Amino acid sequence: MEKLAQDHRTTSTSKTSNITGSKAIENKNPSPEVHPPPKRRQLALKTMKDSYTEVVMPFTKDKSLLEEYINVNGTVRHGKIMEDLDALAAAISYKHCGYELADSSDLTIVTASVDRIDFLKPIAANDLRLSGHVTYVGYSSMEVQMKMEEIFPDHPEKKATILVALFTMVARDATTGKAAQVNPLSLQDDNEKKLFQMGEDHKARKRTESERALTKRPPTEEERFLIHDLYLEYSKYENSQLNCSKPDDVQWMGDTKMSSVQIMQPQDRNVHHKIFGGYLIRLAYELAFCNASVFIRNRPIFLALDEIAFRKPVSVGTTLALDSQIAYSGGGEHHSFQVMVKADILDIKNNTRETCNTFWFTFSDPRKDHLTPKVLPRTYAESVLYLEGKRRRIEGAKLAQLNRKNLGM
Ligand SMILES: CC(C)(COP(=O)(O)OP(=O)(O)OC[C@H]1O[C@@H](n2cnc3c(N)ncnc32)[C@H](O)[C@@H]1OP(=O)(O)O)[C@@H](O)C(=O)NCCC(=O)NCCS
Fold first, then answer.
1. How far is the CA of 175 from the centre of ligand 1 (A)?
2. Which of 7, 116, 163, 226 has the fewest CB atoms lying closer than 10 Å?
3. CA-to-CA dists, residue 1 to 18, 55, 76, angstroms
4. What is the CB neighbour count within 10 angstroms for residue 225?
5. pLDDT interval class at 23 (50, 70, 90)
6. Which residue has the CA at smallest separation from atom 4 of ligand 1?
7. For ligand 1, what atom is nearest to the CA of residue 86?
8. Which of 211, 229, 245 is where one domain is finished?
9. Residue 34 above 90 pLDDT?
10. HotDog ACOT-type domain spans which residues (predicted)?
11. Residue 224: CB partners within 8 Å, gap ≥ 6?
């Protein structure tokens, strides 16, 4: 297991990452763009077990490893773990395609989306095992399911699942850049058939969600009523004649923003010389965490990461602007809320920006006797963001429940 981590460790990165399946390797010959003619790849029928990969992080014994992951609270950094999950998903996908190492492959495998990561309990600094395998394949896409467990070497029966994660990886021909067919899956038993069916359902659900997205269609009738209710509420607080001031537990959505700007450095590139997806997730998560902390004025609990689509690769040297906002918080008896982070590539010369990712995180206020603020939009654009956050909150909760049930948890 540790061998896997070593094999995937890169020469130029990974002081900080334990699994670096798709992270950068030293580019010994960076200049010429001369490609050999594409080779005809032979496909082979693979089982789910063929791609099974696990990595143990022996934090109780390896103090220098723990030093790389520990946070100020004495628990393990979520951002680092999500970075590792992305690397593990890449390692699993390359293995399914018949390659132990990314740099010996004639395929370019990229993270197309992180469909869901659910954190079920805090990550204590115990020994941890990350594991997973391919559960579904399309033509060029592979769904990878992973989990992280707390393990106790002296008591193998005493283990607890800490998180479950679902990624979609896509294979491109390294020479032509076109979609490349991946090895088909041979399903061995009813459980594997169920996992495969879940993968197909996830793909269909994504298509439906994308068709009813608020960027394509107007809000539903129920949502339009909600926008009007929100409008009436904010008008009430803004109208000085009504003498009704905004309560302390209501925050204007426009006042919940937080931003950062980063330069994308070569140390964080993957084998394809683009910025490693897991690194982008960590940056976005850390900004969202800071924003969530300021919003509730306390340390929040991280519950989940909702679907992120990696629409565009990010090149080394890019100036990346990250803008975070509390998009939905119902307040009242509800303690969880949605934080959106938008990542934009800045074109310095032309003073323009292009969005490459939108991240959605769910946090919760751990103080059950404390009122979590409600966010209130004041513009139509903010109201649409609020609806998007609310949809994700509802769908995310359903999906998390369904995934856990299907995984027998
Ligand atoms: C992922 C990417 C290659 C998809 O490009 P595209 O033009 O939409 O690809 P295609 O239309 O050829 O679709 C290829 C496959 O990807 C799947 N796909 C595309 N976008 C997806 C998404 N957001 N979520 C899940 N699957 C997706 C398609 O369903 C299709 O699957 P199939 O071949 O099994 O039927 C492209 O968006 C990209 O390069 N994104 C950046 C990736 C990146 O930088 N990741 C982080 C660093 S690794």
1. 17
2. 7
3. 11, 5, 20
4. 11
5. very low
6. 112
7. 48
8. 211
9. no
10. 55-175, 254-369
11. 218
pLDDT, one tens digit per residue, over 83-103 is 999 999 999 999 999 987 766
Find out whether the beta carbon of 179 lies less than 6 Å from any atom of ligand 1: yes
Query: Can you give the residue range of the structural domain that contains 202?
Result: 2-25+42-211
Q: Is residue 175 domain-resident?
A: yes
Shared domain for 100 and 172, answered yes or no, is yes
CATH number at residue 125: 3.10.129.10
pLDDT digits (tens, 9 = 90+) for 336-350: 999 999 999 999 999
φ, ψ at 72 (rounded to 5°):
-65, -20
Nearest CA residue ID for atom 47, ligand 1: 277
357 lines ligand 1 (CB under 6 A): no
Cα–Cα nearest to 131, from 47, 51, 14: 51
For residue 362, which of 405, 301, 299, 296 has the smallest C-alpha distance? 301
Whether residue 251 is contained in a domain is answered as yes
Please give the structure tokens belonging to residue 40. Answer: 């005809």
Minimum-distance ligand 1 atom for the alpha carbon of 138: 34
Maximum pairwise Cα distance, the chain: 76
- The reply to whether 32 falls in a domain is no
Cβ(356) – ligand 1 distance below 6 Å: no
Residue 39 is predicted with a pLDDT of: 59
Ligand 1: distance of its center to the CA of 164 in Å? 22
CA 23, 113, 122: angle at the middle one, nearest 5?
80
